[in-house]
Amino acid sequence: MKQLIDQVKTAISEGKTLRIEGGNSKAHIGRATECSETLSLRDHTGIAPYNPVELVMTTKAGTTIAEINAELAKHGQFLPAECPDFDGSATIGGTLAANCNGAGRPFRGALRDLVLGCYLINGKGEHLRFGGTVLKNVAGYDVSRLQSGAMGTLGVIEEVSFKVLPRPAMEITVSKTCSAEDAITTMNKLAAGSTPLSASAWVNGTLYLRLAGAKTAVEAAMAQLAMREEDAEVWASLNTLWQDCATEGRYRLSVKSTAAPSGHAQIINWGGAERWVSSDATLAQMQQAAAKMGGEARWIGAAREDEVNPALPDALKALHKRLKQSIDPRGVFNPGRLYSWN
Description:
By secondary structure, the protein is α+β, with helices and mostly antiparallel strands. It has helices at residues 2-14, 65-73, 92-98, 105-108, 111-114, 143-146, 180-191, 215-225, 233-244, 283-292, 314-327; strands spanning 18-21, 37-40, 56-60, 77-78, 115-121, 127-131, 156-163, 165-166, 170-177, 197-203, 206-213, 228-230, 250-254, 265-269, 274-278, 296-300. Among the domains are: 2-166, Uridine Diphospho-n-acetylenolpyruvylglucosamine Reductase, domain 3 (2-Layer Sandwich); 170-237, Alpha-Beta Plaits (2-Layer Sandwich), CATH 3.30.70.
């Protein structure tokens, strides 16, 4: 801890900038930027004393998602956001900073929704605590959740506390062949009803649904849907899309779940709300398409010198700048990683 704080203070005094790095699995996410040196959290690991009964875990930011999943599995629990583990290199701090979530996100919550609190090193070299480590003690300005998607521009995440859940009694994946249009209609219809969905996606002409919960509820839903049982590996393969973008860039669209397919080659996840699109279109063109679908688009992959995130309205942009100035007044952390102006 002292080493991290000392490095931040030295960078401040010498006018240097720091590239915050954990497992370096998400170097292709966000804008490409140049920093004076790297602040590494690779060895800043460890799970705090963990009581499964409380359904809360606290870990150092450099602890990998794979380590967290392994420890939770010993107690029949799991991380509901099902964050991608990037072949074991993804850390909890980097995952929160990049806002990476898996198939269960719309049904069980994003990592941002699960975070109870964190310890943070700000741009003055101060070690600060936000939120708490138990549900009833979470209060105050929610800086811990502001870290979600900030790409390290709002300080060094040192420690994170988050909620976990017991594994469902039964979980089954089923599938059927159909068009993208039919898949979107089916996913939204089922999500609005009582079907125990925990994931739904459309990939290469096939609709996949994951049913989870009490054995009786899952079996009743299977009988009603009359779809073929499928290998659950599809959900892990969807998580690798984040990783695959390092070599084959894609647009990631967050849109209305009921929006019609965009016409580009795509994979539909999150019950229709997340679309992974392969296209030669510019970000501006893809943003226009996403806006018509009630959402926005981001580029993930190579060629990241220009903006990769959707443009912000002036008022929101001003708020971002004030927030950055408050937490990191000298612009030490990951400058330009989120937007060219921050």
